């Protein structure tokens, strides 16, 4: 089961219990955090279930997948990626009804995007974006070099870096790690999701978090080395 299907099941569950759209959106966002579907997509699926739909699958497409790369298809890909940057190429192809190859070409050639820490991001950064990434990384590195206890004083590292999932611990380490024990499991309620996610979080050893922060410092150094451009982990 894909994460998209899991969220659709949750939306269906909320609608069946009589939750409003606003309540459903809040619960989905609480349960899935940054991975939550966009408000418009949640509302769309909420209304489908309200109208009597039972399946959480995308509408089946007749015939072979299209290889079209027209403006309409490109815009559909752009919209879905902007709503969920963690969506996979296969999920995009199934949702829109085009071939996987076409989606890949649209992402890399038409939209100039690439994957960094499992998120789709612009393939090329502007000079301003690079300079901002470089400045933040250099500031963090300077603080760490001048204060040996700098990393020990941090409570969280959950800030979202603009154009920087390769620099945010939650993106490059925590979320992918937390997904492993939850993947493929169907949860019956938000409480069930929270309980299992909390259980998975507790099982991560303390030294793993320490290594994450050590890796974070190395990532600042890489960002400075590459002058603010993207980089991949070890």
TrEMBL record:
Stretches with biased composition (Basic and acidic residues): 53-62
InterPro entries named in the record: Mos1_HTH, RNaseH_sf, Transposase-MT_Hybrid
Annotated region described as Disordered, given as residue ranges: 53-72
Domain Mos1 transposase HTH: 8-52
A molecular function GO annotation: nucleic acid binding
Coiled-coil ranges (or none): none
Stated name of the protein: Mos1 transposase HTH domain-containing protein
């Amino acid at each position: 089961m894909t994460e998209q299907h899991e969220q659709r099941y949750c939306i269906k569950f909320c609608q069946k219990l009589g939750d409003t759209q606003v309540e459903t959106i809040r619960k989905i966002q609480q349960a899935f955090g940054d991975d939550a579907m966009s408000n418009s997509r949640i509302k769309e699926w909420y209304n489908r279930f309200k109208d009597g739909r039972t399946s959480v699958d995308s509408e089946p497409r007749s015939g072979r997948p299209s290889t079209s790369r027209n403006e309409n298809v490109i815009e559909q890909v752009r919209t879905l990626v902007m709503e969920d940057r963690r969506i996979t190429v296969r999920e995009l192809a199934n949702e829109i009804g085009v071939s996987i190859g076409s989606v890949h070409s649209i992402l890399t050639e038409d939209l100039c995007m690439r994957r960094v820490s499992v998120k789709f991001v612009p393939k090329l950064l502007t000079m301003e974006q690079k300079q901002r990434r470089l400045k933040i990384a250099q500031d963090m590195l300077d603080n760490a070099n001048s204060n040996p206890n700098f990393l020990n004083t941090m409570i969280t590292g959950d800030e979202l870096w603009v154009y920087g999932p390769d620099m945010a611990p939650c993106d490059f380490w925590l979320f992918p790690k937390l997904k492993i024990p939850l993947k493929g499991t169907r949860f019956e309620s938000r409480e069930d999701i929270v309980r299992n996610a909390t259980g998975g979080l507790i099982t991560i050893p303390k030294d793993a978090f320490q290594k994450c922060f050590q890796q974070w410092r190395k990532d600042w150094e890489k960002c400075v080395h590459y002058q603010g451009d993207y980089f991949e982990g070890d």
